[in-house]
């Protein structure tokens, strides 16, 4: 069976048996928290359980590496919307040990693009337009430094209220152990 057919078949049963009722919540995060973390499949359930979060407790944003790469990109926009429109009043940036973005090889990724039919002309056009694919695809060398960098982008963003604590953590995707990298409360006290 194809994956989408399997999903739709399951979904029909899910709705018919009202399985959704146990997940009901509002669009506002109960713990008034917004989290940026990695899309790693090991964190799908582990992250929420390790943080003692239930459905509806936090707004969770995921991307490759759990990192902010642009202060006016989609991730930052989502954090700002969570604060101003959804009542979040704390931000957590959570990286993880063994992250694929810590070992990604942009040159190999570009070669895979070519092998999958992306034309050299497309890559040349991007390069001519100022897009440095190798730089754009590069992850990070150190997960703690990556978390600190993302925390700094949020904390120093001109649209983020100065009273919002921005925390940085690293999670072990095997055990769920959290290491505090940046204490957002302490940073506010020192400001």
From TrEMBL:
Xref: Pfam families: Pro_CA
The protein's Enzyme Commission number: 4.2.1.1
Keywords noted in UniProt: Metal-binding, Zinc
Entry GO MF terms: carbonate dehydratase activity; zinc ion binding
InterPro entries: Carbonic_anhydrase, Carbonic_anhydrase_sf
Reaction catalysed by this enzyme: hydrogencarbonate + H(+) = CO2 + H2O
Enzyme class at the top of the EC tree: lyase
Cofactor: Zn(2+)
Residues at which Zn(2+) binds: 38, 40, 96, 99
Cofactor annotation comment: Binds 1 zinc ion per subunit.
Family note: Belongs to the beta-class carbonic anhydrase family.
Protein name: carbonic anhydrase
Species of the source: Tumebacillus permanentifrigoris
């Amino acid at each position: 069976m194809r994956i989408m057919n399997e999903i739709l078949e399951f979904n029909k049963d899910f709705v018919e048996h009202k399985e959704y009722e146990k997940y009901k919540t509002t669009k506002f995060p109960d713990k008034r928290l917004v989290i940026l973390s990695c899309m790693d499949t090991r964190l799908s359930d582990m992250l929420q359980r390790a943080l003692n979060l239930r459905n509806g407790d936090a707004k969770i944003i995921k991307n490759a590496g759990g990192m902010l790469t642009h202060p006016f990109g989609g991730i930052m926009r989502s954090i700002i919307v969570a604060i101003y429109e959804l009542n979040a009043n704390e931000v957590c940036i959570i990286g993880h040990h063994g992250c694929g973005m810590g070992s990604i090889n942009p040159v190999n990724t570009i070669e895979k693009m070519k092998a999958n039919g992306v034309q050299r002309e497309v890559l040349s056009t991007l390069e001519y337009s100022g897009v440095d694919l190798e730089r754009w695809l590069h992850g990070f060398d150190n997960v703690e430094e990556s978390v600190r960098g993302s925390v700094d982008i949020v904390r120093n963003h001109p649209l983020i209220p100065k009273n919002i604590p921005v925390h940085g953590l690293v999670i072990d995707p095997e055990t769920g152990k959290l290491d505090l990298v940046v204490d957002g409360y302490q940073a506010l006290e020192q400001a």
